[in-house]
Amino acid sequence: MARSYPKRRPPHLPPPVALILIYGAFNVLGAVLLRLPVSTTAPITWSDAAFTATSAVTVTGLAVLETGGDFTFFGQMVILFLIQIGGLGLMTFSVLILSMLGLPVGFAHRLYLREDLNQTSATDLMTLTKMILRVVLLCELIGAALLALVFVPEFGWGPGLWQALFHAVSAFNNAGFALFPESLTRWVGNPVVNIVVSALLILGGLGFTVAADIYRVRRWRGFSLHTKLMLVGTAALLAWSTLAFAAMEWNNPATLGALEVPSRLWASWFQASVTRTAGFNTVDIGELADGTTLMFLTLMVIGAGSTSTGGGIKVTTFIVLLLATVAFFRRKPSVDVFGRRLGADQIMKVLALSMVSVLTILFALFMMILFHEGEFLDLAFETVSAFGTVGLSRGITGELDLAGRIVVMIIMFIGRVGPLTLGFLLATRTVQRIAYPSASVYLG
Questions:
Q1: Residue 435 lies in a domain
Q2: Each residue of 257-286: pLDDT tens digit?
Q3: Which residues span the domain enclosing 335?
Q4: So what's the pLDDT on residue 301?
Q5: Is residue 374 one of the residues assigned to a domain?
Q6: Does 431 reside within a domain?
Q7: d(CA 355, CA 323)
Q8: How many domains does the chain have?
Q9: Which of 35, 108, 115, 409 sits 20 to 30 Å CA-CA off 290?
Q10: CA distance 324 to 354
Q11: What is the pTM of this model?
């Protein structure tokens, strides 16, 4: 009589590990598709294909090739597909496919979806996912229709509609990929392009949970603390960066100085609104003053909102850091904002995220300096842009050697999956059995 053995259960992957593997798999798939002869106008290297695929999946926008000139229509569609799934989140995209096929979404998928959307609970995830898909499609279609008013008269119906759709999707997902070698500089004074692209970037950068809160509640008093902090923080950063950019670049002949006054104002608004999240530009980034470059570095580190299509340490993280600093100097034992109190665990998470982010940027910058020769400011700008998945560059992306490209690809990948995801992956949880007496150290 044959003995029956219990079935061995497949090994269970923690959600952070699964997400990292899935993102990595799509990077490889994208590189293979972009390497096909049908994707490019001329043969490209595996390094070119891998860098472009990684930049698209991580919605960064750094490019070693000209998207509109070196890739065919098929190659551009592959890039747009990678941008869309990278911005939506791979698990959100997979849930969409399962729903379209009428298949049930299992508990494991919900766990991965919770990790991908940076949620603390697995409840109401399907409602949030469906809302995300509606918001994404609506914003991208409206954005494409408005941009078509500019592109169709200039390029014709076929190319104009494709360029409008491509830039709308790239903008909402904070990718920064453009089909023109000079990005959007030829429309520096065009109100439609400046308003539509920046609006898509801001909406995509606020985060899906903010969009869900606004959609459901629609009044300030009912908004969650996260939504209030994101709205106030985003408005403050936009106002400050616009005024600061205009003040520092107004008379720079290489950027704003050569433009008419209306175009200067549009350029100031556009460049300040896109710097935290996406790599579009209407002025030459390589000609910015050092003070403006430093401001851009700060904005790229801050980034967009949680559960958004942007990167960085996130706006709420930056705000909580400021609030904790103010509370310390005012000798307050807690951080209170908008009638709510932030817990110690949230403060610890903010500190951990900030420290991991700073260490990641510094280590990546050290590796860039070690393996690639170049101006320090250019390398620092490239590194921070990759970490924040922004995609702005001072013109050195195409000059990177293989080692430099590998460093930038890794930092883009870390910036997209999140420093805390890697931190949680590397950390080991142990049960503390001993409580030690408290002590003090001298700080500052």
A1: no
A2: 989 999 999 999 999 888 888 889 999 998
A3: 15-423
A4: 92
A5: yes
A6: no
A7: 17
A8: 1
A9: 409
A10: 13
A11: 0.86
